[in-house]
Amino acid sequence: MWIDTHCHLDAHEFGNESVAQAAQAQGQGVGMIVIPAVEVANFSIVAQLAASIGNGCYALGIHPIYVPHASEDDLRVLRAQVEAAMEDPRFVALGEIGLDFFIPMLTEPAMREKQVFFFREQLKIAREFELPVLMHVRRSQDVILKHVRQIPPAGGIAHAFNGSAQQAQTYIDLGFKLGFGGAMTFTRALQIRRLAAELPLASIVLETDAPDISPAWVHPGRNSPDQIPRIGAVLAELRGLPLEEVAAATSANARHALPRMVVA
Q: What pLDDT shows up at residue 250?
């Protein structure tokens, strides 16, 4: 069995195919798909979608790309929704949260400050409810690490990891798993592939970030959760391990990172 730890199955790119995409993935052995929210407006959407498929669970959070249009009241709404969702067995984490210092608009001083404020406030909510976090980390590895040291959540996943070996080890030491997906399938992605081959297998989880970060054989087309087994096969090849061992290990790692997850 495989687990896709990060999939925006509610994205408009899927149109009305989200449920069919989940079923197709399940037919390929993907036993669970984690659907993170990105803003208050899609909190109910991801929850309803997760409930409508047999292999879905979800997270609630405000993505850094959506922070420019978010208000402090959105944080109040998030906390209230998280408190209510604690009764829902399909709710597994706070996310997607984090920092993005890649998009030029988000690197302006005022927007960096707002991003940090929202990230820290969401870490506080995660800590209050003892929840793991799904973290967006783009050009912000060391700043993210600084804040999770100060406000440590109950572990989680550094999504689409693309840092150094030293940064990877720091995340691991802080109790996080590292998400690897489509980027690892490109032969030119030497650093990511080296890390995928050399980091402890116990620290790696698989993800698609669908509809984004398509693997090499799909790029530049739309990514989808049924690609997880083939992405996993790349990881197995890089590590020289049997496919079944990689499937079992990465799924166990996902369950460890997201202990509320219930997989049939």
A: 98
**Hey, what amino acid is at 114?**
K
Share of the chain above pLDDT 90, in %: 99
What is the pLDDT averaged over residues 200-215?
98
Phi–psi pair at 257, nearest 5 degrees: -70, -30
Q: Give the closest residue to 25 by CA, choosing from 39, 36, 14.
A: 14
pTM across the whole model: 0.97
* Residue 6 contacts residue 208 (beta carbons within 8 Å): yes
Specify the fold of 2-257: TIM Barrel (3.20.20)
Q: DSSP letter at 208?
A: -
Predicted pLDDT at 50: 98
N- to C-terminal Cα separation, the chain? 10
Decide: 250 and 28 in contact? Cβ < 8 Å.
Answer: no
- The residue written with tokens 């803003």 in the block is 39
Extract the tokens encoding 204. 């790696």
Name residue 121's amino acid: E
Are 53 and 20 in contact, with CB atoms under 8 Å apart?
no
Q: Which two tokens stand for residue 63?
A: 């993505």
Cα distance between residue 173 and residue 253, in whole Å: 15
